[in-house]
Design a protein that fits this description.
By secondary structure, the chain is of the alpha/beta class. 38% of the residues lie in helices and 23% in strands. The longest helix has 23 residues.
């Protein structure tokens, strides 16, 4: 397994475009000042060894060295030793509605983006539990199987989009059935499904699937995201319209979500613009009976930071070798492709 021990150092990469802008501004200012004193031809005769391309070359060598140093500081590592650990927690499968109705803007910027943000925040707070992700619209698919790798889970959540399920609709029953089959055999007493949708079920008998899930020990917590008043669904710069050409308004349908939660012994929460409700549901889940899970994790890692560090040192040495002005001996080789007068 490959990872970075300190990914926060990648924020330093924002320095690169800033320094590039400063460099370009500096060269442009230098050019303007020279233009006030003499023509470019006259300046070339007065300062024949001046080389803008060499200055740029030195600058980009420094930038590449900076990037390499940032990668070294982030400490790239490769897992080298697996060990089996036992944890006690709950298996949580999160099913996210990715139908077009989740693009409605009654939650800014839209329902789906707010859901993804909330799920990420929940994953950050997990420690012993295992999590998986399902996406569904007209069909349901496992986006991420049950795992204790929270970093991978967050990355998968960020990639969720309405384009992942081509068949439109809202097959809540299919999502429940797939989630029920996706739990591990170790979690018979601690299976939880968190269903996030606007509740507009158009495909199947979700209550029948909820009853089957309850029979297999799955407790379903539902989150209704949207407002009863509804909002138009925008794709790109246009709104979805019906056969009459009128703008479609997607409204929250709470009734089916409330029944699903009651059927399985879970709970229903209506999301608000200030709070999606996942935090409240996690508090309820923490009261669920825990199961013991055995999983393999990387215990030791090989440090790979010497590689980018060596690259950075080599680039810095090369930058020192490149002179800021033309070298009369090397000029005949025209190493930097400069035009000769």
């Amino acid at each position: 397994m490959f990872r970075f021990a300190h990914i926060e150092y990648f924020w330093l990469l924002l320095l690169v475009p800033l320094l590039v802008a400063v460099m370009e501004w500096s060269l442009a200012e230098r050019k303007r000042k020279v233009a006030r004193l003499a023509t470019s031809a006259a300046f070339a005769k007065l300062s024949p060894e001046s080389s803008t391309k060499k200055l740029r070359t030195k600058f980009w060598l420094l930038m590449l060295a900076l990037v390499a140093l940032i990668f070294a500081a982030a400490r790239p590592q490769m897992g080298s030793k697996l060990s089996e650990v036992e944890r006690e927690g709950v298996e949580i499968m999160v099913a996210v509605d990715v139908s077009n109705s989740m693009l409605a803007s009654d939650f800014a910027p839209n329902r789906l983006e707010r859901t993804k943000y909330a799920v990420e925040r929940v994953i950050e707070g997990l420690s012993e539990d295992r999590i998986g992700v399902i996406v569904f619209a007209g069909d349901a698919y496992v986006q991420l199987p049950i795992t204790a790798d929270y970093l991978t889970a967050r990355n998968f959540v960020r990639q969720i989009s309405t384009s992942q399920v081509t068949r439109q609709g809202t097959a809540i029953g299919a999502a429940i059935e797939l989630a029920t089959r996706s739990f591990s055999s170790q979690s018979e007493s601690s299976r939880v499904l968190v269903l996030v949708t606007d509740g507009e079920n158009h495909e199947d008998d979700a209550l029948a699937m909820a009853e089957k899930a309850a029979a297999q020990g799955v407790k379903i917590y539902t989150i209704g995201i949207g407002t009863p008043e509804g909002a138009p669904i925008s794709i790109g710069d246009d709104f979805i319209r019906d056969e009459k050409g009128e703008i479609v308004v997607s409204k929250l349908d709470e009734e089916v979500l409330q029944k699903i939660a009651v059927t399985t012994g879970g709970a229903y929460v209506r999301a608000t613009t200030a709070n999606v409700g996942l935090g409240d549901i996690i508090s309820l889940i923490n009261r669920t009976e825990k199961s013991k899970f055995k999983s393999e994790v990387f215990e030791e890692y090989n440090e790979l930071y010497p590689i980018p560090l060596a690259i950075a040192i080599a680039l810095l040495l090369l930058e020192c070798v490149v002179l800021p002005r033309k070298n009369r001996v090397l000029a005949r080789f025209n190493l930097f492709g400069e035009k000769r007068g």
